[in-house]
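1st attempt posting a full record on here, be nice pls
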Amino acid sequence: MAHAVAVARREVALEAAGRDGFAVVAPLVLAAMVLAGVGFGSRPEVLRTVAPGLVWLVVLFTAAPLSRGVVAAEEDEGCWDLLRSVVAPGTLLAGKLAAMWLWLLSTWALAALLATVLLEASLPVAGMAAGALGSFGLAGVTVVFGTVLAGAQRRAALLPVLVLPAGLPALLAGTQAATPDVEALPWLALLVAYDLVTLAVAWAVYPTLLEE
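the predicted structure (as tokens):
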């Protein structure tokens, strides 16, 4: 556990030191919300209707650029092979997953805040729970595919193709759970199932990914 925390703290320190992952994501979220307000018109009822889905679309589309940074720092420093040889796969996965969850949850929180301010959308408690649950499952997907394509610059364009379809359950269930007048419990249950399946698959395949 201590090693996993150390890996997560290193990821946070790298981002704080200026890694361009979240520095790219924050302006993207702001631009998406502002453009949505312009594109969907000035009718408040329309903006409130599309806001829950828009928040999750933004989170989903930012997962692809964030996935490029899963092992980018280690590749740049030439220590990726050393790190995966001295740190247990489960420990490395836990640390990377915790950091990615933090980034995606921060992205969701920023998008939800902007939707509340700019689009006059409401943020129900079920929507907040969906934000935490959906971003966790999406973090697992992002870490796995980011590791799969580590160091493969020519295949970096495949990341959106892989991440976006795998994140559809978070988009669907997260949107429905945050929509007023929709029964949120079944969608939250779907997100819990999505998290469990994603975590189980990541835990099973990650040792193999580190060996390749």
